[in-house]
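To the wet lab folks,

You asked to see what we're planning to order before we commit. Fair enough. Below is the target structure as tokens, and below that is the sequence we designed to fit it. If anything looks off to you, flag it before the synthesis order goes out.
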């Protein structure tokens, strides 16, 4: 490597240093878990207190059933989390108790089902239109996932939840889907303080 190469490398190193130092001054480093607290953050525009988590329910050949993906979720505490679940499963599940059809613990106790381009706000689903649920821990938080009606294209359900208690929680589908659940219909939720 000749002198010119060294000069180039030194220039790049200097630029990287400048960028790193500038970033540190601007953003505050290391970031707090919520990413927007501390004096250094005050010069930034206010952070939008909303995060989004998108899940799918689709057939997984490896397990021979419909499965949620992803299954390991992490969200900040005290922040609106907008979940959107896209379902490919046309099968009606057996619902053990009528309360499993009820939406619970979401903003306004509601969810929005979008099917065939039409969005409908609901607080429960008809018991014969449920494919799966998204139920957290003791069922305080629950939304239902309607069956895919093929002629209407993909079916999506969206709902907002706020978690005020940091920790590790389990979530899953509480209805009897997939004829005994060979799929992966459960996962973990970590609420970060
Ligand atoms: Cu299920």
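Sequence we intend to order:
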């Amino acid at each position: 490597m000749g002198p010119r190469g060294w000069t180039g490398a030194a220039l790049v190193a200097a630029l990287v240093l400048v960028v790193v130092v500038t970033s540190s001054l601007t953003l505050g480093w290391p970031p707090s878990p919520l990413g927007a607290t501390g004096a250094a953050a005050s010069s930034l525009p206010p952070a939008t207190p909303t995060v989004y988590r998108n899940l799918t329910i689709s057939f997984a050949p490896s397990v021979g059933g419909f499965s949620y993906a992803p299954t390991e979720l992490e969200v900040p505490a005290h922040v609106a989390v907008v979940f959107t679940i896209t379902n490919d499963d046309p099968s009606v599940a057996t619902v053990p108790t009528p309360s499993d059809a009820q939406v619970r613990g979401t903003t306004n106790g509601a969810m929005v089902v979008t099917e065939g381009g039409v969005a409908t706000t609901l607080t429960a689903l008809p018991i014969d239109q449920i494919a799966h649920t998204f139920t957290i821990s003791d069922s305080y938080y629950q939304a239902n996932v309607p069956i895919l009606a093929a002629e209407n294209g993909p079916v999506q359900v969206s709902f907002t939840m706020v978690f005020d208690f940091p920790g590790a929680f389990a979530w899953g589908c509480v209805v009897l889907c997939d004829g005994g659940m060979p799929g992966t219909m459960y996962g973990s939720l970590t609420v970060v303080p």
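Structural context that might help your review: Residues 93, 132, 173, 175, 177, 185 surround copper (II) ion (CB under 6 Å). The chain has two domains: 3-43, 50-192.

Thanks,
Computational group
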